[in-house]
């Protein structure tokens, strides 16, 4: 049974969601104390998080951003904030979807099902891609080389996989961002730069330095 964590300080809504989700085939639980929220979420390690933005002690957008640094668990933002800026920030920080209150609970259920189905499809099997110097493990979002393994975030993995699929060809920044947009990930130019830098740093850990090269004014190429 898939586990959903509700991170919401509105007790009435929190209880309603927990009861509804438990009745619809999920194992739902809620955080009721918000003192070490990020670590609590990571410790519980749910299959999906319903995350409010307006929380005591910490902002939900910050939580989303910090969780994304170490985990690809699906995150749906549920909030009363309906500004485009908040929605873009949340998606930019790695949220899978953004829903404003009040919302139709059946639509929320459908979105949860869709996101979990997509996440499960990524993890089916142990498909691997042999990339000569390294191996891409599709099911684990990892790179393997000489018995070493590094874990990548979802966006880092998609970027590397896209470069592998276009190996020897210069790929523009726009092409990479379009690839990420197709999976409902919001990523802007600055965020792409951050992801590329982190990906390069991780690849250096397994002695794959400078395998991704920058072609000034053109994009990137996997050597």
What does this entry look like structurally?
By secondary structure, the protein is an alpha/beta fold. It contains eight helices and eleven strands. It has a five-stranded parallel sheet with strand order 2-1-3-4-5, sandwiched between helices. Strands 6-7-8-9 form a four-stranded antiparallel sheet, with no helix packed on it. A hairpin with a 4-residue loop joins strand 7 and strand 8. Helix 6 packs across helix 8. The radius of gyration is 19 Å and the shape is elongated.
In brief, what are we looking at here?
The chain has helices at 11-23, 37-44, 60-70, 84-92, 105-123, 154-165, 173-181, 189-204; strands at residues 3-7, 27-30, 48-51, 75-79, 97-100, 128-130, 135-137, 142-145, 148-151, 212-215, 219-222.
